[in-house]
Amino acid sequence: MDASAVRPSGRQLAWQQQELTAFVHFGVNTFTDLEWGTGLDDPAVFDPQDLSCGQWVRALVNAGFKSVILTAKHHDGFCLWPTRYTTHNIAASPSGRDVMAELSAACAEHGLGLGFYLSPADLYQEKAPGGYYGNGSPVVASDIQPGFTYEVDDYNRYYLNQLYELLTQYGPIVEVWLDGANPTSTAQEYAFDAWFDLIRRLAPSATIAVGGPDVRWVGNEDGFARETEWSVVPFAGGRMVAAETAAEVAGPAELAEADELRWYPAEVDVSIRPGWFYHAAEDDAVKSVPELLDIYRKSIGRNAVLLLNIPPDRRGRFADPDVQALSAFGAAVRSYYGTAVELPGSFNVVSLREDVAAGQQVESFAVDALVDGTWSEVATGTTIGHRRLIPLNRSVTADAVRVRLLATRAPSPAVTLTVHHDPTIA
Fold this sequence. Notes:
Elements: H1 10-18, E1 20-24, H2 28-32, H3 53-63, E2 67-73, H4 99-110, E3 113-118, H5 123-127, E4 140-145, E5 148-152, H6 154-169, E6 175-177, H7 192-202, E7 207-209, E8 216-217, E9 232-236, E10 239-240, H8 252-257, E11 260-263, E12 266-271, H9 289-299, E13 304-309, H10 320-337, E14 345-354, E15 362-371, E16 374-381, E17 388-398, E18 400-408, E19 415-420
Helix pairs in contact: 3-4, 3-10, 6-7, 9-10
């Protein structure tokens, strides 16, 4: 099996080229000060008095984000759109405003891609009388809509109907995000194949992330990918060789033993605050620009996409500390990484890119700098992929730089080298 021949799909390539995606955790937890709701939370608590999805989108576009994913339904089961399939939704709240519709309109106005998070787990459907989650209903042929029939139980029919609403009522969807966390105590089988089939049929350009067939979770919520991050991943028996694909499971031995190889890139999710939902007590704990840039280098700069969460406050707006951090972060990325240092000059970050449309080929490399007429090695590494950012332990003043490819999976892969100066690096 030839790892050098594995290629991303068009949707995977477009997803990777975004680099920056925003997460927006918003719901009843925002008002109960919880991270995970109970499932029996009163919809009346959800009452944003100054909801402005336009404010979210303007802040994100200004910071350089290319798309945004809303928690349309978190584990508590409360829905941020007026779904026809449960009363546990915004229609039962004082505001009654369709957050998905307002975010969709704002994204369309400002050119931001729209995605949604629809939690497979559902505490409301587990606990409410007559709820579907884990109720032991039989698997039967169910018509979701005309032309969409699946062999599923009650809960999976419910989930498919909600997927159908979100995929058909809110404009183009660029990413559907499935969370693997499960706070429920009840067993419920998920009809993943039916879910994926429906998404593919209704939104063929959308990536299905974190447990889906297009994008994998990096394995932590701390904001970093691995020093060696392969997008070509070995599978055996239809499953990834390891739960979180690390360098040691994408090496020659594992590739040789795999039943198949897939292009399965990593997404790095992290919150701008300690929590995923807004908590006023965390207003002084918003990540600083140096912290965000460190995350940028260790996610996008390690062949992954960064999914950064910014939770709206109880007004329904991004809080001032978050907006300020986003603005400064976006300006810093444009200033430090949007333009290369012109040589001769001084730099402390090396940037390498592969043309991943032609696969991921580089296994190891070295970078040299020409200083006072002599070439000296300033950086080494393993994988490159879409982008690799290597901070140096000191600033280097050089007349020229070069990259040496020490090991590759295909002959002469195209690699682009630039250098940058980031003053936030200690």
